[in-house]
């Protein structure tokens, strides 16, 4: 045991001496490496901070833009809903006005039909009355003619009887003046016949004029009735044509309103599709940018890891060269170099990178996920041993001080 302790102490003294010599020999090189590592670390730290700041600002802007888009989308939806409600109310008002106007037109048509029916009935009654009046007038005229003829016959009979009586009474005393009276009587009879003929002609003329006036009045009434009927039919046809034209115009307006509503709905649908497509493209672009940024970060990280690996390889070469010199020197001095050779061997993995909180590249997996396997002795293991065993010099692992 004393011999082992002596060898260990000698070996440790030799290691300390070699460390001092190495520190003196490689002081400038260590300073350059340290400065380079510090600068690289500071640059990488600044770059990481700048990237984190930019990512945070980009995420903040993206969130603000998305919130603005959501607010705008909600506002546009509210406006569309209000516009739809307004259009619906207007359509309801138009429909109500249309129904009211239609009911009014139906009522006017019914009233007009009733009026036309009433006028037709009145016209038929007027025709019947006119016919009755004509028949009555004809009967009155026939009665007047019969009365006139009877009166004339009676008057002639009375006159003839009177003349006969006068002739019989005066026959005796008029025999003497028979010749004179015959002449005068003939003259008187002729005058009376002329007067009677004139009266009959005047009465007949008056009757013909009255009949002509009645016929003209009747024809005038019939003509006026026909004109009135034609005017009524013409007005009715014109009114029906106007109503049909109004109905066609109203139907066209309704079709135009339906077409306008359909176009508005199509435009709204197309606008919603375009907005959805724009949002989709924007999200796809955001995702692609995020993926590209992650790829860039991974590429930068891999490049940094490759640089660290190259630096570790150089350090390993220097360490192996240094270890070989130490082992050869110890062999020349007759020391047991087995612990040194074992410590100098390249084991599985190693300690974390200097200035980084990740493991060495020996523990990186082969895929591009960037995952790392645990090394044989990590920080948690050392912390556990320190808590259990305490901080003792005899518990430290013997080897090179590098």
TrEMBL record:
<keyword id="KW-0175">Coiled coil</keyword>
<feature type="coiled-coil region">
    <location>
        <begin position="198"/>
        <end position="254"/>
    </location>
</feature>
<dbReference type="InterPro" id="IPR039986">
    <property type="entry name" value="CFAP210"/>
</dbReference>
<dbReference type="InterPro" id="IPR043597">
    <property type="entry name" value="TPH_dom"/>
</dbReference>
<feature type="region of interest" description="Disordered">
    <location>
        <begin position="368"/>
        <end position="390"/>
    </location>
</feature>
<feature type="compositionally biased region" description="Basic and acidic residues">
    <location>
        <begin position="368"/>
        <end position="378"/>
    </location>
</feature>
<feature type="domain" description="Trichohyalin-plectin-homology">
    <location>
        <begin position="5"/>
        <end position="333"/>
    </location>
</feature>
<protein>
    <recommendedName>
        <fullName>Trichohyalin-plectin-homology domain-containing protein</fullName>
    </recommendedName>
</protein>
<dbReference type="Pfam" id="PF13868">
    <property type="entry name" value="TPH"/>
</dbReference>
<dbReference type="GO" id="GO:0005879">
    <property type="term" value="C:axonemal microtubule"/>
</dbReference>
<feature type="coiled-coil region">
    <location>
        <begin position="290"/>
        <end position="317"/>
    </location>
</feature>
């Amino acid at each position: 045991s004393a011999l082992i302790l002596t060898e260990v102490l000698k070996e440790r003294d030799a290691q300390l001496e070699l460390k001092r010599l190495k520190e003196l020999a490689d002081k400038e090189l260590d300073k350059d490496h340290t400065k380079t590592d510090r600068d690289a670390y500071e640059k990488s730290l600044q770059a990481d901070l700048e990237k984190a700041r930019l990512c945070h600002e980009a995420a903040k802007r993206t969130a603000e833009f998305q919130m603005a888009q959501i607010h705008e989308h909600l506002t546009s939806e509210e406006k569309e809903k209000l516009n739809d409600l307004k259009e619906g109310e207007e359509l309801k008002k138009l429909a109500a006005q249309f129904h009211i106007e239609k009911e009014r037109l139906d009522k006017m048509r019914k009233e007009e039909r009733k009026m036309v029916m009433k006028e037709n009935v009145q016209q038929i009654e007027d025709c019947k009355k006119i016919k009755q009046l004509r028949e009555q007038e004809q009967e009155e005229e026939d009665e007047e003619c019969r009365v006139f003829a009877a009166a004339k016959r009676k008057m002639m009979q009375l006159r003839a009887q009177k003349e006969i009586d006068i002739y019989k009474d005066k026959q005796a005393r008029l025999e003497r003046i028979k010749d004179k009276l015959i002449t005068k009587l003939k003259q008187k009879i002729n005058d009376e016949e002329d007067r009677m003929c004139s009266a009959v002609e005047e009465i007949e003329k008056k009757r013909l004029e009255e009949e002509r006036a009645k016929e003209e009045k009747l024809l005038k009434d019939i003509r006026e009735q026909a004109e009135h009927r034609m005017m009524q039919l013409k007005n009715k046809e014109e009114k029906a044509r106007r109503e049909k034209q109004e109905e066609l115009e109203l139907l066209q307006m309704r079709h135009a309103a339906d077409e306008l509503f359909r176009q508005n709905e199509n435009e709204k649908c197309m606008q919603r599709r375009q907005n959805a497509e724009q949002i989709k493209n924007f999200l796809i672009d955001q995702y692609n940018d995020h993926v590209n940024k992650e790829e860039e970060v991974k590429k930068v990280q891999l490049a940094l890891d490759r640089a660290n690996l190259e630096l570790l390889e150089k350090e390993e070469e220097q360490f192996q060269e240094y270890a070989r010199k130490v082992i050869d020197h110890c062999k020349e001095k007759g020391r047991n170099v087995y612990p040194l050779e074992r410590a100098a061997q390249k084991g599985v993995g190693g300690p974390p990178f200097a200035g980084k909180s990740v493991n060495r590249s020996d523990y990186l997996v082969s895929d591009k996920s960037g995952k790392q396997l645990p090394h044989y002795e990590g920080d948690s293991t050392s912390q556990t041993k320190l808590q259990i065993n305490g901080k003792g010099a005899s518990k430290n692992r013997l080897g090179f001080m590098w």
